[in-house]
Design a protein that fits this description.
Largest sheet: 5 strands, mixed
Low-confidence stretches: 58-83, 86-106, 266-279
Number of strands: 8
CATH topology of one domain: 60s Ribosomal Protein L30, Chain: A
Distance between the termini: 144 Å
């Protein structure tokens, strides 16, 4: 009897495709999960951000909390929160002057004047060489002290640019003025010789620019800007007659006036408007 031969099974050479497909599927799922984790929900993020801002910017009213009107011109209503109820209280009608700072002498007029004279004594000691050369004059008053500087010391003729030589002197003055909080008024003066340039159509502009140059230098030296005012008087406040060269020399000057607290009645001084330049 003839024996039938055994049939050999065919070997599948493409089984690796199944494993490869499974690997690709898992890799795709992995990147989908990673993307979903890294993606930020902008809507939820915005809601969370606004909630935190509201929570931290809102002031919780505690018992005894006083709320004042934000309008600085009108007094407004002042209320006090007591056990959750808003009760009106009488406003403080005492006059306040935030621009006038206590000079540290106890608040009395006598202490203020004494401190002002102490500043004058220090100026005389530290600027003695300039005073002896008649480049600076110190004037005293019970309500103010005034440092008068000749324009020839500060500026070239017809200019408002400070000379380099005057910088050490203004630095010494600034160090002295830092010891007090009084207001400082810088005034520019000229003689009656007319000036008509593109930069300075008249003596008004020249005197105001010179006063402003001194103010800027004092500010660079550390003096607070809110304490100072720059004023230009032109030739209209002469000390002597302009008929002589000596008189004109005396009239060309810049003065720095340190006012006492009692004399400081206004917070600002308006510079006069210069007249139209002659054509």
């Amino acid at each position: 009897m003839r024996r039938k031969g055994r049939h050999e099974e065919h070997e599948n050479l493409e089984r690796w495709l199944v494993s490869y497909a499974d690997f690709i599927t898992l890799l795709f799922a992995f990147f989908v999960v990673m993307y979903s984790i890294s993606s930020v929900n902008e809507g939820k993020y915005k809601v969370l951000s606004e909630t935190l801002n509201t929570a931290f910017s809102t002031t919780t009213k505690q018992p005894g909390y006083i709320e004042r009107s934000a309008d600085p011109i009108q007094l407004g209503t002042i209320t006090q929160s007591v056990d959750g109820a808003e009760l009106p209280i009488a406003p403080d009608t005492r006059p306040s002057s935030p621009d006038v700072v206590d000079t540290g002498g106890g608040g009395s007029a006598g202490d203020d004047k004494a401190q002002l004279q102490g500043v004058a004594d220090r100026i005389e000691r530290e600027l003695a060489p300039y005073i002896q050369d008649d480049l600076i004059q110190l004037k005293r008053h019970e309500s103010w002290i005034e440092v008068e500087m000749k324009s020839g010391l500060l500026f070239p003729s017809g200019r408002a640019d400070l000379s380099v030589e005057v910088t050490p002197m203004l630095e010494k003055l600034s160090d002295i003025f830092k010891s007090v909080k009084n207001t400082i008024q810088v005034e520019g003066h000229t003689d009656n010789k007319p000036i008509n340039t593109r930069e300075f159509p008249s003596n008004w502009e020249l005197s105001a620019a010179r006063a402003a140059s001194v103010v800027h230098q004092l500010m660079r030296n550390g003096i607070e800007p809110h304490r100072m005012a720059a004023i230009g008087y032109g030739e209209h406040h002469p000390m002597q007659s302009n008929d002589t060269e000596e008189g004109r020399y005396r009239n060309r000057r810049v003065t720095i006036k340190l006012q006492s607290k009692s004399a400081d009645k206004t917070s600002a001084v308006v510079t006069p408007t210069p007249p139209a330049a002659p054509r």
